[in-house]
Amino acid sequence: MTQEVMPDTARRPHSLKTMLIGGLAGLGLLAGALLPLAPVSAEEAGRRLPDATERAQEGSGLRTATLAGGCFWGVQGVFQHVKGVRQAVSGYAGGTKASATYDAVGTGRTGHAEAVRITYDPAVIRYDELLQIFFSVALDPTQVNRQGPDTGPQYRSAVFPADAEQARVAKAYIGQLDAGKAFSRPIATTIEQGAFFPAEDYHQDYMTLHPNNGYIVTNDAPKLQDLKTLFPERANAKPVLVGKSKA
Questions:
Q1: Is 148 a catalytic residue?
Q2: Which helix (H) or strand (E) holds 16?
Q3: Domain ranges of the chain
Q4: What three-state secondary structure class fits 8?
Q5: N or C terminus: which one in the chain shows less Cβ crowding within 10 Å?
């Protein structure tokens, strides 16, 4: 998986990303003019949010969590550096298998969200602690159908619980953050049901393989730095990569 093998058709739905490489400043102005809500303020971004008052009761054995927070490159890159995470796979959640392709999802009409399936050891990190990291550094949860320069329902923020316990904990944590006015606007992250389908190989490990990509430098590298700064006890220096396997 190298930058050269990424087909042109795969880049079209993320045209804003490729445009960023050559014109970051101009595109930022354009995106700001087109989008209805600005990101959260600098004071709100890059903060370690409170621990969850409702802790996940998960027992032993590996579990999976599926989280959607805009472009999956950055979300995957963050969680690949979290201790206790065994694997983080970029993919699509919320739609059908037949339309779980980058070109189709990029139309915004398939019902999918770009998402990351996280396999983790609850003996090292619980589900509620994954959510704390997610809401603290991986996205702006007040945005509706967008993150950064990317717009459309495929970039919505959503949690796809694997079971009733995850649903309970996610609902409680979102409610806790809203009640505590963690953000100046209500959290827009939805709790949804839906299967997960891995994305194409060229999307896996993208932050690690393309650290100098303009989109990564501007939008995703700061998230990883926030993880290391705000959660030093949770951060691994080396990522757990997908490589050739998407299972």
A1: no
A2: helix 15-34
A3: 3-230
A4: helix
A5: C
CA–CA distances in Å: residue 79 to residues 67, 88, 205: 10, 6, 11
Residue 232: partners with Cβ closer than 8 Å, 6 or more residues away: none
Nearest to 168 by CA among 177, 181, 159: 159
Q: What is the pTM of this model?
A: 0.85
At residue 207's C-alpha, the angle toward residues 201 and 208, to 5°, is 90
* Tens of pLDDT, residue by residue, the chain (247 residues): 333 334 333 333 444 443 433 333 333 333 333 444 667 665 566 789 999 999 999 989 999 999 999 999 999 999 999 999 999 999 999 999 999 999 999 999 999 999 999 999 999 999 999 999 999 999 999 999 999 999 999 999 999 999 999 999 999 999 999 999 999 999 999 999 999 999 999 999 999 999 999 999 999 999 999 999 999 999 999 999 998 544 4
Looking at CATH, the fold of the domain delimited by 3-230 is given as Peptide Methionine Sulfoxide Reductase; Chain A (3.30.1060)
**Catalytic-labelled residue, pool 27, 56, 71, 137:** 71
Residue recorded with tokens 């939805």: 190
Residue type at 172? A
User: Which uninterrupted H or E stretch holds 77?
Assistant: helix 72-79
3-state secondary structure of 26: helix
- Three-state DSSP class for residue 58: coil
Q: Which two tokens stand for residue 234?
A: 């949770």
